Amino acid sequence: MSLQVQVDFEARTACDSDFHGIKRLLGQLFLKSHVNLSELTDIILSQNYIGCVIKQGEIPEDSDSDDGEEEIFGFITVVNITDRKDKPCLQALKDLVLERCKDCAPKSTYEELNSILENDRHRVGFLMCERFINLPPQLALPMYESLNKDLQQAQIMEMQYAFDYILLISKTYTEVKTAGGRKGKKSSQPQEQREEILFSNAEEEFFHQEAHTSFSYPVIEESDSGFSGKWKFGDSATKPFRTVMLVPNSRMVEIKKKMEEYLSV
To answer: pTM score, two decimals?
Structure first.
């Protein structure tokens, strides 16, 4: 017998009591990297007028939570990493991206990414949209709509939230399929493998389609849960990655259109 439970979610302004929930969600993105997640969470809370957190709409009276802290199911925000370059966690973020790019991407990709991230004339916002993996993707659309309204209001107030580029790190994985070998013969040579990148947050594929530059790096050695290890499904297996994308802000309108077509119900 299967049991279906209907749960309503609400978008709310982040508050100090959300610290641990936000940090936990950041942990599933950054894993064992050297980015200080406590400092990054403090920055997110200090600009809680940008973005929102997702919480359960109504908490049952018999809830197990007795400390008054409501669980965070997701959050969205964007941080100006150009103007906040003095923050150690954001410098560590840029170092992480550039180091992984140097190791895992073509030289031309590294040079392009480095020329933008290290040049203050290019205003870059780091977009974070994290949620529990089992939540419906339809939640993403109102989250992005809320963020867009907040950014527009901030720009009207002449705050530093007008960006040339959006930097995004996505939780991705590859499905490796082994091509069939020749019939009637056993080959000692490894069989050809084909990999397809898949996004944990499905809507983030639209950012990938519109990216100015992008690359992926493996995190199999850092993963303790989620997509850790190698999972097998029939004749295929999955391996966890992170996909870094640098998207021109001018492409956000097109991304929003694609997202609406995909997620509208």
So the answer is: 0.86
